[in-house]
Amino acid sequence: MKQLKRVFTYLFLSVAAIVSIFPFLWMLVSMTNKSVDVTAGRLIPGTHFIENLNNLLDQTQIGTALWNSFLIAVITTVLTLLIGSLAGYGFEIYRSKGKDIVFNILILSMMIPFAAIMIPLYRLFGQISADAPLIGLDTLAAAFLPTIITAFFIFFFRQNTKMFARELVEAGRIDGLSEWGIFFRIYMPTMKTTYAAAAIIAFMNSWNNYLWPLVVLQSPNKQTIPLLISNLGAGYTPDYGVIMTAIVIATLPTALVFFLMQRHFVAGMMGSVKG
Amino acid sequence: MSQASNPTQQRTFAQQIRKNYIGWLFIILSVLGISLFYFYPMVQALLLSLQSGMGSTLEYVGLDNYVRLFNDPTFITALTNTILYLLIQVPVMIVLALIFSVLLNDPTLKFKGFFRTAIFLPAVTSLVAYAVIFKYLFGNDGLVNDFLLSMNLISQPLNWLSDPFLAKITIIIAITWRWTGYNMIFYLSALQNVDKSMYEAAKIDGASAVQQFFFITIPLLKPIILFTSIVSTIGTLQLFDEVMNITSGGPGNATMTISMYIYNLSFEYTPDFGYAATVSYVILILVVILSFIQFKVAGDRD
């Protein structure tokens, strides 16, 4: 009976693992095949990767899209972490009734679906376009500005700050560090794991963001990776080999970021789950 | 004595004020940012929902847009679809994630790392990228049909994307594939904090694995189940990327979601920002109601 249960467990988990991995294997294999072979369901690697890659480079501005996505993701990650951690630290270390009320109000914004504020945001950026062309519609800045300050990261950093030893703050004050000095020279280095976990989430969110960039970016040279892939996939005569190559290239950065930082991710998440 | 302590007390008081003031400086950027990018647009959306017109020429029409909602078949379809996705997908995904996490939490299980990574893997893909892949996998001559045909489970290819019912199923399968592993990670983290002696005591008392699951694991994980179900609910109510890239809302409007309808009303059809804002308030109201119900059902102390 026990043995049978074991077998079932492994069988169940194996099926789940295969279902989870299969689309990845398929896109890796398809990247090396001709379009007709991809539609025919060929599951053996071919020799057309270089050809697909060249076609991708010729037919699309994938270099530009990669650069745009990279730029947006890096700036977003840095600003999100900085602003989110300042607030999380501020709310946890300098507690007062007033701040608790403000914190609860900010947390309420997590309930606001993006679709509900998309149109006013679009109009807001439209209105400032004339006066501030650098952050108006169809600029990379417009694509990331509304995403850098979120209640989620304030909450995340506040939860993790509960694990930060307050004695370190006192010690810093006695040593004559300013309040900012304590934050930048003691808190930040101590909380590396938390920052790493937050960085993974922020980078992935930004790299994969689709709806808002779709709304706000119009010029082909402002395209991000998800926009490029969506356009490729919607074509009437899609070259499947080329699309698969693009999808693999788009997935690599987030997969790499995740696997290189996996340990920090799990450790960082634990902090916020513990509460 | 009092004379000596007075200046120190005053200095501490001054320091307190200074610290409090610096405390506000730490959070001011976030307060401004969230007000500008969340609360201000929300008020604007409410005002917009009372206006109507094409493009930028809008005029106040009172509650006309809200009345229009009830007579708009596309809206009703989008709302029904969205709720259907929610009712089927969220429970299925959470139960699956719970089962995976309990199985993978067993210390005697082999290849734990492999299974964990494999099942989490979908969560690192971009929504657009995986949606495009699923579109091809579930195509008429796609691999899913090939597989089902070769197993003799079906006699002719299924129209996954062009049949109204199957198209919905495809969307549900796709979201489940993408998010189950993500939720599993939360449960695994929480399970690792659980005191092992509780299970040992239960075993001694003769509790079966199923009993342990329902009477120990579920109650212990309740707060995190509540958290993931609220996050998943909000996510499903906002479903856009997958539907846009797998079926474009079709066939007909069979897979249309509220978010996609808002997008179409604003940027695909002749733009009517006022009515689109009205539809968007429906999502907001649904999120608030459903989160409230979930809190009540979970009976959380906070």
Describe the protein's architecture and organization.
The complex is a heterodimer of chains A (275) and B (302). Chain A has 275 residues and is mainly α. Chain A has a domain of 161 residues: MetI-like (MetI-like fold), CATH 1.10.3720.10. Chain A has 15 helices and no strands. In chain A, helix 4 crosses helix 11, helix 9 packs across helix 10 and helix 11 packs across helix 15. Chain A is globular and about 70 Å long. Chain B is an all-alpha fold and 302 residues long. In chain B, helix 1 packs across helix 12, helix 9 packs antiparallel against helix 12 and helix 11 packs antiparallel against helix 12. Chain B is flat. Helices cover 74% and strands 1% of the residues of chain B. The N terminus of chain B is likely disordered. The two termini of chain B are 47 Å apart. The relative contact order of chain B is 0.13. In chain B, strand 1 and strand 2 form a beta hairpin. Chain B: This is ABC transporter permease subunit. Chain B: Keywords: Cell membrane, Membrane, Transmembrane, Transmembrane helix, Transport. Chain B: Belongs to the binding-protein-dependent transport system permease family. Chain B: InterPro entries: ABC_transporter_permease, MetI-like, MetI-like_sf.
Helix and strand run of chain B:
HEEHHHHHHHHHHH
Quaternary structure classification = heterodimer
Low-confidence stretches of chain A: none
Q: Percentage of helical residues of chain B?
A: over 70%
- CATH topology of the domain at 62-222 in chain A, anyone? MetI-like fold
Reported for the largest beta sheet of chain B, the result is:
2 strands, antiparallel
CATH architectural label of the largest domain in chain B: Orthogonal Bundle
How would you classify the helix and strand content of chain A by structural class?
A: mainly alpha
Number of helices of chain B: 12
Model regions low in confidence, pLDDT < 50 over at least 5 residues of chain B: 1-5
CATH topology of the largest domain in chain B: MetI-like fold
Overall strand count of chain B = 2
User: CATH homologous superfamily name of the largest domain in chain B?
Assistant: MetI-like
Structural class of chain B: mainly alpha
The percentage of residues in β strands of chain A lies in under 5%
How many separate domains of chain B? 2
Q: Would you count the extended β strands of chain A for me?
A: 0
| Global morphology of chain A | globular
Q: Helical amount among residues of chain A, as a percent range? A: over 70%
Largest binding interface between chains: A-B, 82 and 86 residues
InterPro entries (chain A): MetI-like, MetI-like_sf
Main location (chain A): membrane
Protein name (chain A): ABC transporter permease subunit
GO biological process, one term (chain A): transmembrane transport
